[in-house]
């Protein structure tokens, strides 16, 4: 089967709309949360932890419901959650701390993002009872 069938207008629309909504959500989280604690950009952290949790839920839901249309999965995971979560902003914030001589804060920030996102994804899978989908 060719991948060309995946390049349908509906799939492009699903990814694009999802990405727009995800990016808007990330932007709003930053506006609301980043001013609360300047040393730690809480909006970026919230976007990554929420996205990690929601991707676990989504992977579980789509695995347990294989009849759902591909466009829904593309909208939710590739589009919305891809737009919501942000490795580039996280990377810039960690490097900014390193360049400011705040190595401990940078390492802590990187650890919280990575470990927190992995834990959140697992909790998302637990939420929908889909922790045994790979074996």
From TrEMBL:
Keywords: Cell inner membrane, Cell membrane, Ion channel, Ion transport, Membrane, Metal-binding, Sodium, Transmembrane, Transmembrane helix, Transport. This is Fluoride-specific ion channel FluC. It is found in: Cell membrane. The keyword Transport applies. The keyword Repeat does not apply. Belongs to the fluoride channel Fluc/FEX (TC 1.A.43) family. Na(+) is not transported, but it plays an essential structural role and its presence is essential for fluoride channel function. Na(+) binds at residues 82, 85. GO terms for biological process: cellular detoxification of fluoride. It catalyses: fluoride(in) = fluoride(out). The chain crosses the membrane at residues 6-29, 36-64, 70-91, 103-125. Fluoride-specific ion channel. Important for reducing fluoride concentration in the cell, thus reducing its toxicity.
């Amino acid at each position: 089967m060719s991948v060309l069938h995946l390049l349908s207008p509906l799939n492009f629309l699903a990814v694009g709309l999802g990405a727009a909504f995800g990016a808007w959500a990330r932007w709003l989280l930053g506006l609301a949360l980043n001013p609360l604690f300047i040393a730690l950009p809480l909006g970026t952290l919230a976007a990554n932890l929420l996205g990690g949790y929601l991707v676990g839920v989504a992977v579980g839901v789509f695995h347990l419901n294989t009849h759902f249309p591909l466009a829904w999965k593309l909208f939710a995971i590739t589009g919305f959650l891809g737009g919501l979560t942000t490795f580039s902003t996280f990377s810039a914030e960690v490097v900014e701390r390193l360049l400011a001589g705040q190595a401990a804060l940078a390492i802590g920030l990187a650890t919280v993002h990575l470990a927190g996102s992995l834990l959140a994804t697992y909790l998302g899978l637990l939420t929908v009872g889909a922790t045994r989908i790979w074996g």
